[in-house]
Specification:
The protein is mainly α. 86% of the residues lie in helices and 0% in strands. One of its GO terms (biological process) is enterobacterial common antigen biosynthetic process.
Length: 416
Amino acid sequence: MNIVRAGFYSSLATGARLLAGLVVIKLVAWLAGPEGVGRLGQFMSLMSLLAVLAGGGISAGVVKYVAEYRDDPQKLARLLSAALWYALCASCLMGCVALLLSRQLSLWLLGDIRYENVIRVLAVAQLGIALANYVLAVINGFMDVRRLALIQVVGSALGVVMAVGLSRWLHLYGVLLALVMGQLFLLVMGLPAWRRSPYFERGMLRMRFDREMSLRLAAFSVMTLTSALLPPLINIAVRDHLAQQFGWTQVGYWQAVSKVSDAYLLFLTTTINVYYLPKLASTYERSSLMRELRNAYRHLLPAVIMLAALAYVFRPWITRALFSADFDGANALYGPQLLGDVIKIASFVLSYLMLAKAMTRLFVISECVFALSYLALVYVFTASFGLVGAMYAFVVNYLVYLAFNVVVARRYLGAS
């Protein structure tokens, strides 16, 4: 399957996820205004953290090694049994931790003890979320993009129906509950679809500890956990800083613009995840790697520039359509945010080379350094420029990150 076909199917899945996300944001904006959208971001950051921790952060490793071992049944069986064992142990551990800390998390992130039960539901759901991540990673590793898209489209549709229904009954509480249940719909749809695939074998659902494979997955676990955990944690810190400096209404403006960026960038980041990670993982020749990277830039950069330009031109309409007139103050934040989005995609294409080739130490160090530098830049720029300084920090940080990835890629390809 080439990038165009992979991009088509991943765009269908992304469109469904995007629509589901926009419905949730619109519901929260209608129910609770800018402040509610700001707090929604905190809850979604917690969901992101737990979703990754629940599976031990090995999804990228499963994708990589399934792509490598799919023609070697013995290694593939060892990998998958170890991956399932790893994921289920991690999900049980994280579920228990989240359950014990549900009251503290509710007060810290949402500022209200009434949402403690939602966090408890999220904690109990970790086992199902881990299984869903495992199933989707296996399907992705076989580059079965059509089946992957079908699961995500139907799962997103079910999630939207539940969000609308629960919002009418339980209001904001119901929307947050629907977000949790929406993750479980991926398992409900994914497991039957996977079982009907030509590559499914019953042994893929067998758990067994395998030291060699577990160590390989652990390297990816460290990288994935670093890249997945740091952004939500840093964003929580950024929101807390902005709330203290400017108030939660201003945080809602920042969150709204960030969500618009996340929404349209999903089309591109999903393609990178679905197509380029397994492709780069199974490619070893220097010339082939360079060709794949050139193709990525040829297709992805014009796309992100066009989407960013459209988002900027239509930003007043987008803001009112997705949120409400109360969010008009967010329109001034779009320019630097969208510029940063272009630079972000340019850097992501190269950063996936580190992930695909298991450059664990370099990847982890770079993620930590640039996450902390972003937080530091937010403090510096907001002190000088106000709320828009958070967007300036985003641009500057990704410019430096892009330069770093160019150096890493040139050294790796020169040595291949």
